Amino acid sequence: MAVPRIPGRPLFLRVPRVSSCFPDAARSAGVRRALFTARGHSAYPRPMASRSTPSPSPGRAAGRPVGSVTRGTTNPNRLRRMDRWIAASHGAALRRAAEPVAVDLGYGAAPWTAVELLARLRDAAPRVRVVGIEIEPARVAGAKPYEREGLSFRHGGFEVPLEGGERPMLIRAANVLRQYDEEQVTEVWARLCARLAPGGLLVEGTCDEIGRRHVWVALGPEGPRTVTFATRLGSLERPSDLAERLPKALIHRNVPGEPVYAFLRDFDRAWAAAAPYASYGARQRWIRTARALSAHWPLADGPGRWRQGELTLRWEALRPVG
Question: Counting Cβ atoms within 10 Å, is residue 14 exposed (0-12), middle (13-18) or buried (19+)?
Fold first, then answer.
């Protein structure tokens, strides 16, 4: 069978070992099936794909997508931490929805993140559909060979165009606002939240190139709700290392006098105080750190999520000053 290829991308026919290239995927049968059964594709291409992310652009002609094409990077399995959190925290809402639709906004030159999102969400909500939305038409055309039942791709931007004016239960926008002005964030959040169905969720954040460090904001139609810090614990020297992955709304606020600065300071202090627990492993040290923080900061999760290398706070605790 001929293997469809994305324009401008080299084609690799040798299948790498799942356990070495995608360690998290190897532990998830749903994701593993998605990786190696997508329309005859035998494996992911090795190089990183360019990632196109829409940015606000007032004054666009009527009918044109809202946003403009920019460059970024993505890798297979990069968004696994965000996906797993979404499935755990929003899976029940997706199961209850009559028409559960999730959007992968700005998926980039290769559709891997949308393929993975479908597999992970269907473990929690078997009827969910995923729509990948890209502002660059050529990238939409390149993703079409990967369409299947429950997965489709559309041309668009921040207006989130869906069939028949459908409203999504989830919009995931990862590494989309990183390169834009802080002043644009509120406008984009409001636009995207207005497109959500009742009970819907917007998840917007930033991660490193291989998904070891990730921070995101979860928003409902009413606005921001929580901020989640997630990391591969074995690679963490101190919690404030996550500061470089703060979402755009917070990254420039990591200065004295701002709540996020105070939180990361306390996070590091609690981590240092929990050093004796390191002999039991980084996970136990992280859990002890979270327990200490909960005495002074409004954490929104508990040990079940802490064990995953996550920690979630109420947005009000980190809301920027002024």
Answer: exposed
Whether 113 contacts 104, CB under 8 Å: yes
8 A C-beta contact, residue 110 and residue 82: no
Q: What is the CA radius of gyration of the chain?
A: 19
pLDDT tens string, the chain, 322 residues long: the values are: 443 444 444 433 333 333 333 344 434 444 444 443 444 443 333 333 344 444 444 334 446 766 555 554 678 999 999 999 999 999 999 999 999 999 999 988 889 999 999 999 999 999 999 999 998 898 899 999 999 999 999 999 899 999 988 999 999 999 988 878 999 999 999 999 999 999 999 999 999 999 999 999 999 999 999 999 999 999 999 999 999 999 999 999 999 999 999 999 999 999 999 999 999 999 999 999 999 999 999 999 999 999 999 999 999 999 999 7
Tokens linked to 241 = 């290392």
Candidates 317, 316, 55; CA nearest to 183 is 55
